[in-house]
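Quick entry, no commentary yet.
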Amino acid sequence: MRSTMKRLVIVGLVLTGWHGVALAEDVSLSEKLTASHCGACHTFKRDEPHGMGPNLHGLLDRPAGSAPGYDYSDSFLQRLDGQPWSRELLDAWLADTQAIAPGTAMTYFQDDPGKRELIIQYFESSH
C-alpha cells in the first residue's frame, strides 16, 4: 500500500513538473511572438514610454483609449473609446484592426487564430 501511494505521489510530481515546463514554454513562446509582432510599435513594461503605439502594460480589462499621455487617432476613439479590452475584443482587433476601427492608425491583420491566442495569453500572463 505504501509503495503504491509513494509511486502515485512521484508520478503526480513528475506530471506536475512537466506541466509547469510546458506552461513556461507556452509563456516564453507567447512572449516572443508578442514581442516580434507588436514590439516594433509598442512597449510592454510598466512605466515604459509609449512607442509609435501606446504602452500595452495591463492591457486586458483596461478601457480602450486610456493609456495616459498617448494621443489616439480619432477613428480609434470613435469606435473603441472606453470599451474594456476583453479577450474577445482583443482577438477581433488582432484579426483585423481596420474592421474594428476603420481608418485607425494601426494596421495589423493576424489570420492565424493560434497566433492570436498566444498573443492574448501573453497579455493575460503579464496582467
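second:
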Amino acid sequence: MSKVCIVFDRLRAEEKMLQKEASELGHDALMLDAKITQINTDSKKEDFDFGDVVLERCVSYFRGLHFTASLEFMDISVLNKFAVANICGNKMFMTLLLKKITYQHQKHIFHFQVKVQ
C-alpha cells in the first residue's frame, strides 16, 4: 500500500500507536526524528524518503510548523497542512477566526503593550 512518514521530535506512546495502526492497515510506516533531519533551501524531494504522505507530530509548535513549511516547499504531501497548523497553533489567530465565524465563546482581551518598570 502507501508509505506514511510520521515526523516527531519526541517519540511518545501516541506516535508508536500510530505506527502500529498504520502497519496493521497495511501501510509502510516510517518514523523520522525532526531534530536530526536537515533541510535547506536547496533540498529537493528526491533527497529524502518521506514516503507518499507525511504526518507531522512534533511536540514543539515552532519545530513542527517550520518542518511542515519546509516539506510543503519541496512539494511533499503533508496531512496537517502549514496553513492549518499556523492558525490552530496560535491562540490569538484561532480566537479571531472563531469570532469571525460567530462561534459563541467568552470575550477575550488582547494587550499589545509591555509595561516596563
